[in-house]
Structures are given as structure tokens and as C-alpha cells.
Amino acid sequence: MYNKGVLSILGRVYLNTKLFIGTSAIILLYGLTTVSTDTLLSSATPNLDQTKVNSYNEPINNHLLSLNVLTNSLENRLYGVASILEFASNLPEMKSVPNVSLLNTTLETLHGIPQDSDLQKRNIAQEILSHYHEIAGIAFIMPNGDTYFMEPYALQSNQTKNNLAYRDYFKGSIATNDTYLGDIITSTSSGVKRAIVAVPVFTEKNNGVLTGVLVGSIELGLLNKELQSLDLSQGQRIVYVDSNDTKLADSDRRLFTNSSETFSNLKSFQNANEGKFGSIVEKVGQDNMLVTYYPMEALQNRWIVLWIQPIS
């Protein structure tokens, strides 16, 4: 039996860390009004249209520092998900060789192994899910891409594809032999958008033969709730976007579900996608807006945070 106590302690410690970081970010966003950000502004100056935004120096000051806090919080939380999955992937029970013969008899009917099979691996996944609520689901995928199991089991029973070798997170983890954050996907089992972190799993013996990939899906709905809880001024919004122009979260409830909205044509998005931060006045939709932007290093990927406000 795996050391449940160790996993429980680590899960609780990291959950508390994550809550502290997220809460601190929100507190700073609510309370930030007079903090000086000369260093940030001097770095961002090449990206500013000074003739249009001179009167916005104070909000730019505040927005840049706030976005810096937000991106640091998000980075820490992503690395937290990766860390807990890496910890689990190194447990002896997770490293044990999967029951391939059983999988071959049940893959087409159950989309993996039965619910009561390989409980040592399943129990580890359930333990993580019970303590780390940003992880919406965990899967173990075989080296050929076949699904071995998913937790909660409802995800497995609702799965529409038995082989996930085509997913970029699976390919990236296999190719790099390392933790990999994939592009935002629409889950085939739940139908919702999720970010996926994949960690390769190797045997303890035989020179570390690859036995599978441990995958955790991040619940993006929590990011939406956090942004939508912020007390932004009328007409302002904050959005999280990935480098492929897929919106992850939006402070505006009405616009989050707008699948036709795009940001890749914005200079602010392009600058942030190149690793720059700053502010610029540009047309968003039909209106001129002051857009403050900040890149976030999401493992090997890049996400972008945009703070959009009307020009009065």
C-alpha cells in the first residue's frame, strides 16, 4: 500500500500554499493604488504610445504591478500542479507496470481498466483530487496512447476516444521525457475547456523504461471565478489567453462564452507573446482601449494576461 500519509501531507501543504498565493494576488488587486513601479515602467516604455497615454500613468502603474502579481500567482499554481503530479509519478505504486492484458480485454467496452482494478494507482489519483481542487481529473495513459484509467471514473466512462496519442501534451511529454503543459483543449469526456499537464512515468528498474504518462487536467472555471470576483471599474476587463489565442478566463461573464472573439490581431497580444510587457492604446472591437499586457511563463508554454479599459 502506498504511503497515503505522505501524499496527504504534501497535498495539504501545497493546497495551503496555492490558496495563500491566490488570495494575496486578489488582495493586491483590490488594494493597489499608490505603489510606485518605476522599474516596470522604464522597462515597458518602448511599448507605450506616450502621446495617448500620458494621462493614464497612474492606472498603467497600478495595472502593470497588478498583472505582475497575477502572473506570478498563476505561474506558481501551474508549477504546483506539475509538482504534485511529478511527486505521484515517482511513487512506487505508480511506477509499477500496468496490467496490459486486462486493458486489452476492456479498452473498447470500458475505455480503460475496470473501476475496481489497479486500485493502488487509482487511490493515489483520488487522494490528489480530494486535496487539490484545481485538478479536475487525472488519467494514466499507456506509451502507445491508450487510456489505462481516469479519475473520477465518470470521466473514463464518458470518454469518447480510447487513444490519446494525437494530443499535443502526450506527444510533448513523450518527446521531451519531461513534464509538459499542452495547448488548451476541449475535453472529449467532459466537453469543457481544460489545460493539461502531462508527466512521463518510468519503472524503478530496467534503466527506467517508460510505462505511461500521468496526466492532470486543470479546471479553468476556477480562474474565471477569481477574475469575475474582482471589483473592476465599469467597462474594464481582464482576460487570460494562451499563445494560440484561446481564451482561458475572462472577468466579463457575458463575453467569456464568445467563441468568435480573437486577440491575436492586437499589438498588445503580439508584444506579450514575444515576452514583452507594457501598455498601448489600440482598437479592441469597435472602440479604442488602453490595453496593459503581461506575459506568463507557463512551464514550457506561454500564457498572456490583458487588462482592457475604455479611453474616456
From TrEMBL:
Name listed for the protein in its UniProt record: Cache domain-containing protein
Transmembrane spans: 12-32
UniProt topology in membrane: Multi-pass membrane protein
CDD domains: PDC1_HK_sensor
Alphabetical UniProt keywords: Cell membrane, Membrane, Transmembrane, Transmembrane helix
Pfam families assigned: dCache_1
Organism: Candidatus Nitrosocosmicus oleophilus
Keyword Aminoacyl-tRNA synthetase: no
InterPro entries: dCache_1
Residues in Cache domain copies: 102-305
Subcellular location: Cell membrane
Lineage: superkingdom: Archaea
GO CC term, one of those recorded: plasma membrane
